[in-house]
Amino acid sequence: MIPWNRGHKHECKNLKPVADRELPKAVLGCMEILVRRRHGLIDDQTWQLLCHLDSHVDDFKNNGNYGGIELMAMGTSQFSATQEIFNTNFVAAMYARILSNSMTLMTPTFDPLGIVIDALLCHLNHSCDPNTFIVMDGPQMQLRALKDIKEDEELLISYVDPTMPYARRQTELQERWFFECRCTKCRQGPTLQEDEWAIKPGALTHQYQKIADEEIQRNEQENLASFVGGSLDERRVAALQAKAFAMYEAEQRQTEPTEAIRIIEDAITLCIEPNLWPAHRQPLPALGDDLVINMLAVGNYEGAWFECAKRHRYVIPKLYPQMHHPIRVVQTWQMAMLAQYLASAGAELAPGADMALIAAMLINTISVTSRMSHGPDSAFAKSVQQKFSEVEAELLGKFGSKDAMNVAIQRQVKLLAEMGK
């Protein structure tokens, strides 16, 4: 990171006239790049890498969005006071590069903070079956391996959520990055677990056939992102899927946790009641994730725990089969911290369940996997290791030895699985 007196003082000066406005993150990012280049804070090699990123200007012109980009570029140029150095066409192209190549800036536990554009990492190609995952640790970005990588094998990340169905991945990639994915996963089409249904489309109950027909009539244009097939049964399933995703997107825009929970529960009912969705098919897992977050927000800790237990048993192993997958590690950490809180509150969630031991069991797992998911020297892995040392010391004082402690923990494994039913 560039120290404040080398970078941010210039940005603050330029942002002062617009401090009372809420500017788009891409505008702020573009301003930062232009201002830093103007003041010599971006070296020539990094600058060339940035300029080499595809701007997709022709694609934006073809889809009718370039006019908005030009308008944003005019404002960016004015606010950054770089008009004499960069003409409007150049600024528009740089703004388009940010729209096409920026990544979401996240905490180590994947809470979004903003956007980031890295001159090197943004050149990584996409696969829906990636072999690497980007993890952020403070100002540092790390590329962590998800699987064994052979010498000279290309490093690949996923631009989209690879747990989404085939048509939804393809639609998002086409709309934002303007390409059809032909990765090893996509070459198999909608035949993998992301596109599995719990029942055949033709087995829908009459009630849900009627609901689906009403959705088809209500929406003149069928949602390409939810495409399943051309038969009436497949169109019905696609209509229900489009409705479920629309409800998911609506709850994500909701700022009131109670209302978000209501929408989520209605959407989950839509998925579960017709017996159509397996537990691992999106958007059901994403709805479950958001239900946990909103339940925690309203203080329903026991409800959040049982949702975590179901996710731990049925969803995580399917979506993230690698034990060290960063998302699997973070979700398990969230569950461990909730278990520890419930233990401190004296909650009795199932006969014989010891939440302190369950928390210790989960933290023990994360103390190993976080070193691979985030790196042994990362702040996250170190905090997990510190927590494990504290928990282990406390339990050793209670049980007297590691052997006795481990025997007691193993008794909780089955109880944890039972709570996930």
Automatic annotation (TrEMBL):
Domain SET as annotated: residue spans: 1-160
Highest taxon of source: Eukaryota
Pfam families associated with the record: SET (PF00856)
Name of the protein: SET domain-containing protein
Species of origin: Paraconiothyrium brasiliense
